[in-house]
Specification:
- The chain is an alpha/beta fold.
- Helix content is about 45%, strand content about 15%.
- It is built from eleven helices and ten strands.
- It has an eight-stranded mixed beta sheet with strand order 5-4-1-6-7-9-8-10, sandwiched between helices.
- The structure holds S-adenosylmethionine.
- S-adenosylmethionine binds next to helix 1 and helix 7.
- It catalyses: adenosine(2030) in 23S rRNA + S-adenosyl-L-methionine = N(6)-methyladenosine(2030) in 23S rRNA + S-adenosyl-L-homocysteine + H(+).
- Monomer.
């Protein structure tokens, strides 16, 4: 079960999409003073080095955040403005890499903790023994820098752990559900955990990342999430980014023999109760992102959104 290590994928195009959507959502929710419960059910290691073996071996970050970092620098040098959501993300990256060389990549826990206000609380879950240990060390460093008992790491199952956290007394929550989908059962667990969360806190904001791959469960997941949102009378948003990596004949042959079909080409985020500003922000950001990250002619993006039925 534990072969997945996010360090090989940190900063790839899927992280870029997910982290931009997460940050834009968080900023909108923090425009109000009320305390927020932030939950990351599948937190990973928290912080990543892009100049070390795992990132270099996969090369995914170079084609993701590396390409974006370069495009942002070129645009800034030319005096061109970046889409607001991209600029915010780039500012977070710059804060971690103040000398201008992109070496450190913030996973979702790092992005969330950097934005934490005194009235907010951050709950992280990570089950992998090694990544849990790495995250534990990082959380201790965050706490030492700004003593905030409001950051809590549980080296436990995030699908199970979310239940006990909802609803928070403030009734304001942003929950990121970002499994590795290493197990096919993750798709069903995601739908079940969102259904349960909506019963406990219908007004919570739930951000789910999913891969766009040729697997029935993966196609079905956004449809199931949309049906859940509609059933509960909630607004929803679905954004996808496909960087159009050309098919690799070796990967195709491996897939035909039942092996994984190579690197991920496309992914999506599904948001239940998105901020009303999010669709507009992503429609501005995604074409810009795609221009920076595209790998082939099949590259595409989409943002769909729906309001609760009256
Ligand atoms: N959210 C992170 C980010 O954006 O930086 C990336 C998370 S990574 C895609 C998924 C993580 O979930 C892996 O580190 C994996 O070990 C962990 N994991 C898998 N199943 C889990 C579970 N049931 N509960 C908590 N963590 C789990």
């Amino acid at each position: 079960m534990f072969s997945y290590r996010h360090a090989f994928h940190a900063g790839n195009h899927a992280d870029v999409l997910k982290h931009i959507a997460l940050l834009a959502t968080l900023r909108h929710l923090q425009a109000k003073d009320g305390g927020l419960l932030l939950v990351d059910t599948h937190a990973g290691a928290g912080l990543y080095r892009l100049d070390q073996e795992q990132a270099r071996t996969s090369g995914e970050a170079a084609q993701g955040v590396g390409a974006l970092w370069q495009a942002a620098a070129t645009a800034t040098a030319a005096g061109a403005a970046l889409p607001a959501a991209v600029q915010d993300y780039i500012d977070c990256l710059r804060a971690l890499n103040p000398d201008g060389v992109l070496q450190h990549y913030p996973g979702s826990p790092a992005l969330l903790q950097a934005a934490l206000r005194p009235q907010d609380a951050l709950k992280l879950f990570e089950l992998h023994p090694t990544d849990g240990r790495l995250l534990d060390r990082t959380v201790r460093e965050w706490r030492a820098r700004t003593p905030r008992p409001a950051i809590d790491l549980r080296r436990d199952n995030g699908f199970d752990g979310l239940k006990a956290l909802l609803p928070p007394p403030s009734r304001r929550a942003l929950v990121l559900i970002d499994p590795s989908y290493e197990l096919k059962s993750d798709y069903g667990l995601v739908a079940a955990v969102v259904a349960d969360a909506l019963r406990r806190l219908a007004v919570g904001c739930y951000v789910v990342w999913y891969p766009v791959i040729a697997r029935e469960q993966a196609h079905a997941l956004p449809r199931r999430l949309r049906a859940l949102a509609q059933h509960h009378g909630r607004a929803w948003l679905q954004a996808e980014l496909n960087i159009g990596t050309p098919a690799d004949p070796a990967a195709k042959a491996a897939a035909a023999r039942g092996r994984p079909a190579g690197s991920l080409r496309a992914s999506g985020v599904f948001v239940v109760n998105p901020p009303y500003t999010l669709a507009g922000q992503l429609r501005e950001a995604l074409p810009w992102l795609l221009a920076a990250l595209r790998q082939g002619p099949a590259a595409a993006w989409k943002v769909d959104a729906g309001e609760p039925k009256a």
